[in-house]
Amino acid sequence: MTILVTGGAGFIGSNFVLDWFKTSDEPVVNLDALTYAGNLANLASLAKDPRHVFVQGDICDRALIDQLLATHQPRALVHFAAESHVDRSIHGPGAFMRTNIEGTFTLLEAARAYWSTLAGEAKAAFRFHHVSTDEVYGSLKPSDPPFAESNPYEPNSPYSASKAASDHLVRAWHHTYGLPVVTTNCSNNYGPFHFPEKLIPLMIVNALAGKPLPVYGDGQQIRDWLYVTDHCAGIRAVLAGGRLGETYNIGGWNEKANIDIVKTVCALLDELRPDPAGPYSRLITYVTDRPGHDRRYAIDARKIERELGWRPAETFDTGIRKTVEWYLANAEWVSQVQSGAYREWVAKQYD
Ligand code: NAD
Ligand code: DAU
User: Fold this and answer.
1) Is residue 136 part of a domain?
2) Which of 261, 258, 168 is nearest to 218 (CA)?
3) Is residue 265 included in any domain, yes or no?
4) By the number of CB atoms within 10 A of the CB, which of 146, 189, 273, 285 ranks highest?
5) What is the reported pLDDT for 340?
């Protein structure tokens, strides 16, 4: 048995692949285009592991996907590959439409063709697991209950609109063709291998470099944070036991305002790597807000807990400490990802 993973060299995908082999010997075929966000260094510990087959390629390449499905005969496809950064989607939405919508469509069509060749047990057991986001539900007001699976879709950014479109395609391929799909909609992840364009790793690497810590708007926007390996465990639970055609929200019950996240990172760095120049919070700088910035996300994760017994293992306090420690211990990874292209992005977004 084998699973096919897309986007397994990115932040969550690489954590998922690394975690998979802690609990299973089932091989993983990992298809990733290695965009700026994909990094084989994340998977360096698997370099000589025969259970991991890495293929560099594009999820929009139908011939390649057909060939991978025919060759490896996976029992499941777990789809992480995406353009994932909201700010980049505001600067250039085209890549998001292509990868997130056309790429998902291409995978669905290839999976449908492959699945139709299966019979009996293999056909019944096949799964297409679509990894999605809570951002498809839009923005909550302070007194609104957290997002449930029944919330209407109200995406507000080009990124979330493209993910919403992909969720709808997945739903339609189940209802129209009977493709055995499950979808998970998760809140903000953090942890090792998080690309330093996103809030938490950006704050850590900027603080260590003595650079400003750019907080958008008033810093009171709220996100619901989940340690990445808890997300991976939730995906494994849904892949194993999720009901076909259902969606499952995954979240850590950890609503935090951005400014509080930044202050927590600063306090941990003050403790673990004190700066003789003074507390890291001196670097906090309020900058122009993100256009269309969603004010609050929060996940109601009771369905996955009730049906599948999943619960996060990490609290925010344990997860954020592990994360800061990981970045302090992995300065080489950080400097490797801060390539010329990364520096160009930072200049475009923050100068
Ligand atoms: P990421 O940007 O770190 O990684 C994306 C990966 O996809 C990269 O390895 C990249 O090379 C690959 N990729 C991009 N375009 C591709 C293409 N056309 N063909 C093949 N591979 C391609 O993203 P992430 O944060 O790891 O997110 C993974 C998935 O989880 C995404 O679908 C995202 O929408 C979803 N998600 C992310 C979060 C989060 O907080 N990061 C939360 C909920 C859901
Ligand atoms: O909710 C799940 C989503 O979480 C995922 O679907 C996305 O792929 C992922 O990128 C993330 O989106 P966000 O926009 O919430 O994450 P980001 O880390 O970019 O920003 C988190 C919050 O911090 C957001 O309110 C914007 C703010 N922010 C971000 C950056 C990069 C700042 O204030 N300053 C910054 O420099």
Assistant:
1) yes
2) 258
3) no
4) 189
5) 84
Domain of residue 307 covers: 3-194+225-254+292-314
Q: What percentage of the chain's residues is helix, strand, coil (to nearest 5)?
A: 50, 15, 35
135 given a catalytic annotation: yes
Residue 186's nearest CA partner among 128, 241, 146 is 146
> Is residue 25 a part of any domain in this protein?
yes
pLDDT band at 153 (very low <50, low <70, confident <90, very high): very high
The ligand placed nearest to the CA atom of residue 131 is: 1
**277, two tokens:** 């120049």
Cβ atoms < 10 Å from Cβ of 172: 13
Burial, 209: exposed, middle or buried (Cβ in 10 Å; 0-12, 13-18, 19+)? exposed
The full length of the chain comes to: 351
Considering its fold, how many domains does the chain have in total? Answer: 1
**Mutational pocket test of ligand 2: of 100, 189, 216, the residue with most ligand atoms within 8 Å of the beta carbon:** 216
Interval 190-220: pLDDT, tens: 999 999 999 999 999 999 999 999 999 999 9
Mean of the per-residue pLDDT values for the chain? 98
Reading the block at residue 58, the tokens are 């594009």
Q: Which CATH number fits the domain that encloses residue 154?
A: 3.40.50.720
User: Is residue 19 flagged as an active site residue?
Assistant: no
199 CA from centroid of ligand 2 (Å): 6
| Dihedral over Cα of 70, 239, 222, 317: its sign | negative
Per-residue pLDDT tens digits for 308-342: 999 999 999 999 999 999 999 999 999 999 988 99
| Ligand 1 touching residue 18 (CB < 6 A) | no
Could you tell me the end-to-end alpha-carbon distance of the chain, in angstroms, rounded to an integer? 50
Q: How far apart, in Å, are the Cα atoms of 260 and each of 218, 219, 254, 303?
A: 12, 8, 12, 28
pTM exceeding the 0.85 threshold for the entire prediction: yes
**Predicted pLDDT at 184:** 99
Count of other CB atoms within 10 angstroms of residue 161: 21
Expressed in angstroms and rounded, the spacing between residue 40 Cα and the centre of ligand 2 is 23
Q: What is residue 285's three-state secondary structure?
A: strand
